[in-house]
Amino acid sequence: MGPYAEEAAGGRAARRPRSTDPLELGFTPRKPVPWLAPLLLISTGLRTLLAMLFGAYLDKRELQKALDSEIAKQVGPDGGLWLDYVADLGDGFNATYSVAYLLAQPELTVDGHRLPRAQTLVMGGDQVYPSAAYEAYEDRCKGPYQAALPTTPPEQPSVFAVPGNHDWYDGLTAFLRLFVRTRDRHFGGWRTGQSRSYFAAELPADWWLLGLDDQSGSYVDDPQLTYFDTVARKLGPQSKVILAVPAPAWVKAVDSPSAYDSIDYFIRTIIAPTGARVRVLISGDLHHYARYTGPDDRQLITCGSGGAYLYPTHKLPEQIEVPPRDTLARRSSPSRSYALAARYPDAARSRRYGWGIFGRLPRRNPGFATLLGVLHTLLMLSIAGVADFRIEASEQRLFSVPLVLMVLVTVLAAALFAKPPSTTGQRNVRHWVLGVIHGLAHVGLGAAGTWVWLALPFHNWSWPLPAAAAAVLYLPVIGLVASQLVAGYLLIASAFGVNVNELFAGQGIEDAKGFVRMRIDPDGTLTIYPVVVDRVARRWQVNPDHTPEASWLTPTTPLTPRLAEPPVSLT
């Protein structure tokens, strides 16, 4: 077959790439997001602030009542169904495409189990990072998945998506254009199967798949409740539900009891009156795999391993109560205790990953190390201007930032860093204490750096040569040293439950990724296979197989998927 093939997905001629050049691929493979980059920190903070202040004004869910209210039906050729779940996928190319490549293969053999490609793919949120811009969706999400499955295979698999908080940063505009449309309803080789930002699909043997959009845990809008009221009329006591939600509220409710209220309200008012049972609650948002199980045999699964930086598992609580007993909701379901049954990576490996912060932080975030260098250079010049009583130093004092201001900025910035702005969660005493101690440590480092600098000959040069020498010589060195101080702080603070996310976001760990593949047999048995890959591919080559549905790129070193735990069966 030649380089051109008819693309069944959209009926367009799609030329297979002849190299990994972006002009050939049609998108630009991106590096992992440097989460501690100064501009990104500022922009993320602003987006979070806007989401907090104006989220309700940007909410497009109320407008979706004008769209079709479709209820999909998904069934495989044998009367059963293979179903995939992936979340938090649109980050660096190597990790994102490694997972997409595995999802797209006709069959995987994992720990002796033959797992055919799923007929239904569910994307569980945060399909793109760091924001929902058109270019980001193309390069970090749609492009890699198009390359993994360029055309629709004969079984015509479908894709459904739940929006996460990063998909919400533009009010769902890009998300709706990509997954909710009336023409060209394809996402690579998958057919888009939903008509709103939430969905319902009837599965074999009276299983149901429901995807909920609760806008970062705020509330469930009235048109959405009306839609699911219609769905509920089809449910009965024999019905079993897989509920996909944007975030693992059952875990987050440990620190923020109200986090689970929205999900509990939905289950209690929509599903429970029908007699149906929610057998699986699944979400992404936390970038690892974890499964909790309780006395009602309900599985609470987190699987946010689709491509974003790894999130630790060693801080997960061993026992949780769902709903939490201390919720302020006037009505709630009875609380039940759930035990942590499995996690990936395991706790020991997760701790080892944490220690990698010292090497990875400056390497993954050079802009952050540079910012630290600038701040410490200004701090040093301020201290030096006060400590030097020579007449010649008066010019330096005139042109340097006042010492009191620099100390206040340093301590305040560290205190705020201990609890970055978010739509949920409050600062408490431990955040302030650790943050202030961290700030004072930087002031101490600044004093030590000043003592060393004053012992060097550069300080005795005429102004502005000392400042120029500091920018050239002192800044890069102190930036690296300060980054190690931040790394040490993150490691210590994480032991107290502070800056746990920043400890791992700052490392941008690409490995330990995966997804969940599920099988519903015609008799109603659901089997859960958590597929993981310990190391993602770093090098890619053009696939010599030119059949239309073959992946465009293949790893130069084959990926070796395995199961995070033995298969879990529900009846």
TrEMBL record:
<feature type="transmembrane region" description="Helical">
    <location>
        <begin position="468"/>
        <end position="492"/>
    </location>
</feature>
<feature type="region of interest" description="Disordered">
    <location>
        <begin position="1"/>
        <end position="25"/>
    </location>
</feature>
<feature type="compositionally biased region" description="Low complexity">
    <location>
        <begin position="1"/>
        <end position="12"/>
    </location>
</feature>
<protein>
    <submittedName>
        <fullName>Metallophosphoesterase</fullName>
    </submittedName>
</protein>
<keyword id="KW-0472">Membrane</keyword>
<feature type="region of interest" description="Disordered">
    <location>
        <begin position="547"/>
        <end position="571"/>
    </location>
</feature>
<keyword id="KW-1133">Transmembrane helix</keyword>
<feature type="transmembrane region" description="Helical">
    <location>
        <begin position="368"/>
        <end position="387"/>
    </location>
</feature>
<feature type="compositionally biased region" description="Low complexity">
    <location>
        <begin position="553"/>
        <end position="571"/>
    </location>
</feature>
<dbReference type="InterPro" id="IPR029052">
    <property type="entry name" value="Metallo-depent_PP-like"/>
</dbReference>
<feature type="transmembrane region" description="Helical">
    <location>
        <begin position="431"/>
        <end position="456"/>
    </location>
</feature>
<keyword id="KW-0812">Transmembrane</keyword>
<feature type="transmembrane region" description="Helical">
    <location>
        <begin position="399"/>
        <end position="419"/>
    </location>
</feature>
<feature type="transmembrane region" description="Helical">
    <location>
        <begin position="35"/>
        <end position="58"/>
    </location>
</feature>
